[in-house]
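Protocol step 6 of 9: fold each sequence in the batch and record its structure tokens directly after the sequence line. For illustration, a two-sequence batch is reproduced in full.

Sequence one:
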Amino acid sequence: MTDTNNAPIAIFAFNRADLAAALISSLQRNAGWQQAKVYVFIDGPRTEAEKQKTDSVRRLFEEVEHPELVICSRAKNMGLKASLSSGITQVLKVHDRAIILEDDLELSRDALSYFNEALTLYKEDMRVWSICGDIPKLDGFGRSQAHFMPVGSSWGWATWSNRWKSYSGNSHSGSPMRKSRVFKDRFNVHGLRNFKTMLAMEEAGQVNSWYIHWHLTIVRNGGMCLFPPVPMLRNSGFSGGTHASRFSLPSLFGLGDKEIGDFDFTLPEKVELDFEFTQRVIDTTEWKLLRLNSILGKFKRSLMGSFKRR
């Protein structure tokens, strides 16, 4: 029997059974896991050879003991953007909120409690657009409570149906807004990452990203997102996946091994941006590596494109 105090969980998986198994184990250690309705979306194989891997992931979830777990196994490959966009929309058509997880995450033992308490507390405040679970190591800064930032996260997050309905995976920013320095500074979160270039690349078909359009939706609506002072989850999939490889900087520098914390902090009663916390995040080694990794990825795609044109 599901509990209305526990948001439904949407899990997006593909062909990595080992990582999916680690996600399941971490969820099973969470209070509220058995009381939440769970939707599992497994993207289809890109090749016949890959079908064994996606079938293995499906069997893994079929063996999970859970009272309300629904598996949607796709026959054809949709890609992460289409799979996730359509899956979240499907879940939020029947629920007013949801926790969104990809198969390469590992959660802390009370991550679900953090997501659910925040979803309840900020449900009516339309300034808050997302509850995020990941944060770089901050060496204890701001440890006593969560903080609001002018950006969301794609690695383990939650939102509400009345926010997600504004999302469009094809929401072009338009040339007048694109030329504005104010837009560039706000969209790039004051140096956190070059999201403006990522949006241009996505619209040109050079990358396939659902998140950049979700970020644009939040920015257009003047939204902010809640972040914990310590990681409530970690991404263990840097060695492979849609946007990663074992030679990427996050993989080489071990970002997938960072220590996750406990929900022993408070949620702020006052909803306001924390500029000092945001600056601390921008200046972390983790985000410096992610920015450099993005630049190297752009260079790699440009180089590959020039070879194809020859």
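Sequence two, same batch, same settings:
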Amino acid sequence: MRRRLSIARALINQPELLILDEPTTGLDPQIRQNIWQMLRQLQKDGLTTYSRHIIWTRRSVSVAALS
């Protein structure tokens, strides 16, 4: 819950740049996918993101390339 809250708090002022440090660590797989989908949509909308995270799955590799 804290991790999701910190991401929401970071987005509330509609920043142009968002720096995340392992944003989905410790989250269940469904919530993790939801957060990555949200971040991809924000990138399409013009938000620049930088994310450092552990790559666990093959699907995450493609997400890492987007960051």
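Proceed to step 7 once all outputs are recorded. Observation for sequence two: The chain is about 50% helix and 15% strand.
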